[in-house]
Amino acid sequence: MAALAGCGDNLTPSGAFEVVGHADLGARGMNAALAIADDTVYVGSRIDGVPIAIVDISDRAHPDVVGAIGPDQGEGLPQMSSRELRAVPDRDLLVVLNLRCSPSLHGCAASGGEPENLKLFDIHDRRAPALVATYPVVGVDMLHPRSPHEMFVWRDATRVLVLMSTPGGPPSFEIVDVTDPHAPVMVVQWDPITDGGLDGGGNDNILHSVSASADGRVGYFSHQQGGLLLVDLSQVIDRVAPPQLAMITPPAQVLDWSPPSPMGPHSTVQAPGRDLLVATEEIYPVPYGAGCPWGHVRTVDISDPTRPTIAGEVALPENDKGFCSSAVAHTAFTAHNATVTHDLALVTWYAAGLEAIDISNPAAPVRLAEFRPEPLASVDHEDPGLGGNPVEMWSYPIIDRGLIYVVDVRNGLYVVRYQGLWGEQVSSLAFSEGNSNL
Length: 438
Prior knowledge:
Elements (H helix, E strand, L loop, with lengths): L2 E2 L10 E9 L7 E7 L2 E6 L6 E5 L7 E6 L10 E9 L4 E8 L16 E6 L7 E7 L13 E6 L4 E6 L7 E5 L7 E6 L16 E6 L5 E6 L3 E6 L1 H4 L8 E2 L19 E4 L5 E5 L16 E5 L7 E6 L23 E3 L3 E5 L5 E5 L7 E6 L26 E3 L2 E6 L3 E9 L2 H5 L3 E3 L5
Antiparallel strand pairs: 1-2, 2-29, 3-4, 4-5, 5-6, 7-8, 8-9, 9-10, 11-12, 12-13, 13-14, 15-16, 16-17, 17-18, 19-20, 20-21, 21-22, 23-24, 24-25, 25-26, 27-28, 27-30, 28-29
């Protein structure tokens, strides 16, 4: 087992990550998100033709691939990537978001596949998921194509809702009721630009990610080059039919830091019980993005939801402009996705691995620990867009029974333990993930 602490910021590390277990997933490479249901993990693929891996984690020290969800169940198809996965264990439900992956960025086929979609699986038998429904995600016409990109799963005692970003559009946001997985139903479609009045300028001005408050009444929308905004979802929660969504943050007061930064908000997660968000910014290397300096993390004060403001920022040494002259091609030291406790943010940061950040003082967030895994010697599918560095930590971290599960695009599934400041907030948690309220 290895303990790896934060370094490079001239601060004394006050935390560490310990590797508990690792599964290289057959050294296949191009791994996507994960979902956990009891002692089973499901790991998607960023490339086509590769099934969803089913991993036994009953022995946390030795996670073991025990099966796959393949073409016979509608996964691992040509041109299709199982990009996002969420599990609702007490309902025996696995939700998979499938999109067409890029030939240049991901190495996928240029043709084939099927309409992009959500697939809903019955996982009563955790090791033998059964497809029960496919929900297509399509544009209103050929001039307004949409692609499912990220999703947030919200549930209460009676309902399970999928909140999904669907750029370009309009509409670029959709809520789907999957309470009955055999009959998913569209609840509402909405667009921040055409319906909310958000500025529509910018080449990459898309709704990238959505999340919600624990009670589901407020949506946090990360609109690249459009800004971070809060949206009233209360009519959905109150079962008003048809529900009307409304901007809580007026268009003139959205939090937009692009420019000078090229992208703006990528994904946003609320700190439990606090008027505080943790926002990431994802900047890809050239030619897919602006390149170095890459994106970092911002803490956002939402005590006035009509005017979110940046409270503080935290970055890596590699995020500094001074590093750019030595940057390796197709490498991205950029923040990606976060899972947040009251005082600690766990953030995947591509080539920098997994970061633990103290957010107890939002005005001065501090890096506490870092985990950059030892890379595999080789994998079947190297990342054509981001393969300049052999570490590509990507998924939303999941805290399950006090341990952290995270997927590296290249190197597989890791089970790690965090020890240090605010460590009890992780070790005491039964379950938490940044992309659901489960």
